[in-house]
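Homework help thread (please don't just give me the answer)

Our assignment gives two proteins as sequence + structure token strings and asks us to describe the second one. The first is just a warm-up. Here they are:
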Amino acid sequence: MPREFSRTLRLNTQLQRELSTLIRNELTDPRVAGVSVTHVSVSPDLRNARVSVSLLGADAELTAAVKALNGAAARLRHALGTVLKLRYLPQLHFVADEGLREGDRIGTLIRDATARDRAAHPEQDDDAAD
């Protein structure tokens, strides 16, 4: 009977959980305050991990946070080594997760378009209420 989850998927989940905790508790850099780890993708050979992070705020703040996290990657990797018992710890590469920001931008565009449409055609709102 095959396993339900592959090792890579389990490692992705475990790395995401542990990195979230380490970033929150171990790093004192103010640029990484409030950073959320949204996704971790480990390469098939388990040597590299791409860590997507998100931050509420301006794009410049997210860029600064990613730069700070890449600077602290060796420290985070060492801390992971004390928690995880793996033969090889993946190199950590932090990238900005633009998906949440893009979704928020599209949601705002839709709300604005709907509001403009309702303002331009108020009689349709009365018909829909009946």
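The one we have to describe:
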Amino acid sequence: MSIRARKPIKTVVSKAAAYDTILRPIITEKATIANENGQVTFAVAIDATKPQIKAAVEMLFSVKVVAVNTIVQKGKTKTFKGRLGRRSDMKKAMVTLADGQNIDLMGV
């Protein structure tokens, strides 16, 4: 009896779902340096999965995505006018593009 590897399932998202998944690009000094090496950083929906993020980026920007790394940044507790408040959690996705591909974030 041999063990067969599963085929990866291709995730298909609609254009509206893609816009709901990818919220905005993150443009910081660190993200700009990573962009020069073919990695783009986006703020994404907190419940978005890696296959959904990959499908959304490929659809919206017409590029080939090699890998997606995600991180959930926990919200800080801050004081505003003497009252405690809490920022909401944020999910970031670092998307690695295929060689020769790039996304121009300044035109977005």
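TA reply:
I won't write it for you, but here's a hint about the kind of observation we're looking for: Strands lie at 22-25, 39-44, 65-73, 77-80, 83-86, 90-97.
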